[in-house]
Each structure stands twice: as structure tokens, then as C-alpha cells.
Amino acid sequence: MSTPAEELSTQLGSVLQRKLGDISRIEALKRLSGGASQETWAFEGVTDRGTLPLILRRAPGGIAPEGRETAVTLATEAALIRLADKAGVPVPPVRYVLEEADGIGPGFVMDRMEGETIARKILRDEEYAEARPKLARQCGEILAKLHSVPMDSLPKLRHSPAEAEIEQYWQTYKTHGHPHPVFELAFKWLRSNLPGEGRTTLVHGDFRHGNLIIGSDGVRAVLDWEIAHTGDPMEDMGWICVNSWRFGNIDNPVGGFGKREDMFAGYEAAGGPKVDPERVKFWEILGTLKWGIMCTTMYEAFKSGMDRSVERAAIGRRSSETEIDLLALLAPRS
Amino acid sequence: MQDMPQSKEIVEVVGEFLRQHVIPNLEGHTAFHALVAANALDIVKRELEIAPQANEEELSRLQTLLDKNGTLEQLNRELCDRIQSGDITLETPGFADHLWQSTLTKLAIDQPKYSGYRRAEGKI
């Protein structure tokens, strides 16, 4: 009897052979860890000229999920990657979007790109020493392109400007019920300091370490378009500045590798409008609060019995990290 | 009153056991989760050492700030309500200092190596 992985390998191989022509079969299908909501598989596509390193993103068990509140469908994710590609954002090329008749559920196949996603390696290893000083500017350039994707070309997406983001996380915080005076202060400040009218664009929503493939030459690809939405483009720049993504390099606000000014300069040079640093700071504060509440959400998953791992339980105690960051942003001590 | 060892000594020795004898013999995911487990025990140990006095101080600050008595949880809930209503703001005397003290205590227990904490303590 074949295992589910062997079965998937056979089915996927025959689908790709039929639809892509140059791939005769597939090899070495292996489930990758990470990505709780979708399955990610690595495999090799065998062609006449050698093997192609590929990735399959698929719904868990090949079953289309019930519409979740914030995540986009896999077909939408594939469409967004293709649109971003067209706008000049580095992304893994999408080779094939699964169809219902293929019988292996919703998903898509894209190229597997060489590079590193683990922050500690990117920030410490010699291999990335030359890339590091360039990364903040590159992130700015990439975001300018990402935010230039024409609105009328986008698939249907959740619209989530600042007020909606705040309301969503307020509901989550209130549902958990544990009192966090620092979070209350942050909510109060954010509601009183909403940014004025601005652009509405495509927003990646999770532009940070882990979702950027980086090589010795810099950023090679932007991954994980699952929580993309439309909203304030400055959300993406604020999010990558959250201290939790600096991994100890507190004085390099952009991902622990660079300065805000370099990112803003890259953004403007690549066609983005002039950046208002105060607006980015608003989103950094909201981003810090969001990560704090996500930590408490992971504890709730432990408490409910859904995930009884030590890691899930312990991450609840990381919400205090965001509280000290919020205080430093909102009530700095002289 | 319990007999010796104290709970913080028990937690400490279990952590030492994990680090010195268990983790070196593990690999991959299991090794990672065992390290997370050892770190979680460190949180408990620090909480046992720090929380008794820090909680008393927090309660006393809350009583002064809110001008009423109650448990730590009741007074923290009351503080949250009064922040939302706008009754207590960063201009309220003692409020910012209270938040800093309580948050520094949380970090001293949860994550004393965190950059934001070390910066606040003037160590980096």
C-alpha cells in the first residue's frame, strides 16, 4: 500500500506531465515544516535537461478550507505572486495553478529558490556580510514595486485600513480577557492618532524575516502572501521595523540589518511617493501591538488543547517583549 | 510550610538535568523542544524568586494610583478600564512609572536577554 505522500507524488507527477509538458515525472517529494495553515512540499521535476527544484503549496490534506477571516485562498496567492512578478517584485515564478479536475485539491506549483530565510543566519553569518548593508534599501525598492500593483488588476481581497486592523486586534484581545494595561495604552494612543487620508494599495501584510529569501547578493524573493490585503502601504514598512524582527540588533530598525532612511530612500528611488516617517511609526506601534496579541493568541491555542506543545505555551510569555517596546515608543523615559 | 528543597531549587535542578544530560543526546525537533522546555523552567525559577516582592510592590502602586483596594487582577482590570475611558493618561502622576516598573518586572522574569529590556536597563 502506498503512503499519502507516495500517492500525492504519483498524482502530482501525472498532473505536471500532462499540463507542463517538459516535466516527465517528479522525485523526492518531501513535506517541509512551517506554515501551519497550508502544506508546503519540496520536490524535483525531472525534465530532459535535468531536474527543476520546485515547491507545491497545497491546502491541508488537499481539502479546500472554509473561508478564514484573514487568509487568502491559494488561487489568490498564486495570482498575487504573478501580479507582483509583473510589477518587478522578486518572487518565485508560479509554474502551475492546480485545477479541480486535477484531483489533489487547491494549490499551486512554483520554483524553489536558493537562499536563506533564518534571521539569525542572515544577520550573523559571513556569507551575508556583503548583502547586509544593501538590504534596507532593497526592501524599500521592493515595497515600492509591490505597492505599485494596479488596484484594478487585483483579485478580491480583504480591505483593512488602520481602523479595521485596530478593531480586529481589539476584538481578539478582549476575547482573551487577560488584562494588559500597556496594550490598553497602545490601543488608546492608536485610536487617537489615526493617520490621515492616504494611498490605498496592495499590502503584503507579513513582510519580514522568514518570508524573505536572502542570498549573498541580497533579497531574492518575497514569500508568504497569505495575509495580503488592501490598505495603507505604510503598514508593510512599519511591520519590518518592529523590534521583534531585529533579533537583538536594536539599533538597526529595518529587520536588524539597516536604517529606516535607507529603506525610505530605496522606496522613493524606485518610484514610491515621499515617505512620511510619522506614518511609518504609527504602523510600527500597531505592528508591535499586533505581534504582542498574536503571542497571547498562541497561548490560547495551547490553553484550548489545540496545541499542547511547550513552545506554544511559552510563547505567551513573549508578549511582554512587545510591552516594553510599546512603552519605549509611547512613553520613553528621559 | 513545605520541606526542603524549595520549589525554585527543584525547578533549577530539573533545568540543569535537561541541559547537561538530556539535550546533548537529542536531535532535531525533539532537541529544540527540550531546549524550549529548559528555558520555560528558567522562567518559573525567576518568577519564584522575583514575583513575591514585585507583586506586593505592584499592588501597592495600583492602590495609590487608583485610590482603592483589591486583588492584583481586580486592580489591573480597573486600570485597563480607566485607560480606555481616558480617566488615566500618561499625564497622570505615577502612571507611566507604574507601567515601566511592572513591565520591567515582567521582562526580568520572562526574557531578561531581550534587547528592549537590556536597552531599558542601560546594558546595551
Provide an overview of this structure.
The complex is a heterodimer of chains A (334) and B (124). Chain A is of the alpha+beta class and 334 residues long. Chain A has two domains: 4-111, Phosphorylase Kinase, domain 1 (2-Layer Sandwich); 119-330, Aminoglycoside 3'-phosphotransferase, Chain: A, domain 2 (Alpha-Beta Complex), CATH 3.90.1200. Helix content of chain A is 42%, strand content 15%. Chain A contains eleven helices and nine strands. Chain A has helices spanning 4-20, 74-86, 119-124, 132-146, 162-176, 181-192, 234-239, 260-269, 277-303, 310-315, 319-330; strands spanning 25-31, 39-47, 50-58, 94-97, 107-111, 201-203, 212-215, 218-222, 229-231. In chain A, helix 4 packs across helix 8, helix 6 packs across helix 11 and helix 9 runs antiparallel to helix 11 (319-330). Chain B has one domain (7-120). Helices cover 73% and strands 0% of the residues of chain B. The longest helix of chain B is centred in the middle third of the chain and has 39 residues, at 28-66. Chain B is elongated, with a radius of gyration of 19 Å. The model of chain B has no long low-confidence stretch (mean pLDDT 97).
